[in-house]
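From the thread on structure requests for the teaching lab: each student submitted one protein with a one-line request. Submission from student K.M.:

"Model Putative anti-sigmaE protein from Tropicibacter naphthalenivorans, tokens only."
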Amino acid sequence: MTDRAMDVLIDEVVVGLAEDADVARLEALAAEDPVLAARLDVARAKFAALDATADELAVPQDLWARIDAELNSEPTATAPQPTPSAGVIDLSAVRAQVSRWRASALTGIAAALVMAILLGWNVLTPQDPAVVAILLDARGEAVAMVEGMPDNTTRVTLLERQDVPPDQVMQVWTKPRADGPPVSLGLLETGRSRTLTIQGLPTPNPQQLYEITAEPAGGSPTNLPTGPILGKGLAKAPVI
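Reply posted by the TA:
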């Protein structure tokens, strides 16, 4: 399976659109692969905000019967065939996908996604990262995933909550050159995942070091890491 196909499977499992066999297979793989487990956590975090915006609604009992009738109806001899145009959904093109959703409860995030597809909305996907790094703590546990983008945007996804004293803050660092000094990418002031942007650095490269340290409020006073390392790891180029 390609990395892009795995991303699709992960998203389908998270939003409840995958078959039971696919869910079981992905969970088994994630249990053995910390990188895959981290990607699964990222997908859950990505869709969590959308899920929280959707009210749970009861599904009309005749919903799928009405959809089937519409999808399987044949145009009459006198009815002109519509010409596809911008903003018009070809129902035959989504028939196979719709049939996969029959067993899913059309509530929460699933309802929002179905409506988005039927209305022809485009789901915005972030750019592919140039590198990905899994940061490990002193115990060897994965604590964060870092995705370095070609435009020097860095997406930091925390995989577990860090106990940082109130007078300290998490600061993210990288070493664009192995023989150069660490460079600050920014602060995680709220102790939550966020996207950081810094200008003037080269495109991230494989084996580039990333780490998160605990620093005084406001960040390191020396512009170099001074506090304990909460997590660190070397970047890898993702398989696209």
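TA comment: The chain has two domains: 1-125, 131-234. The first helix runs from residue 3 to 15.
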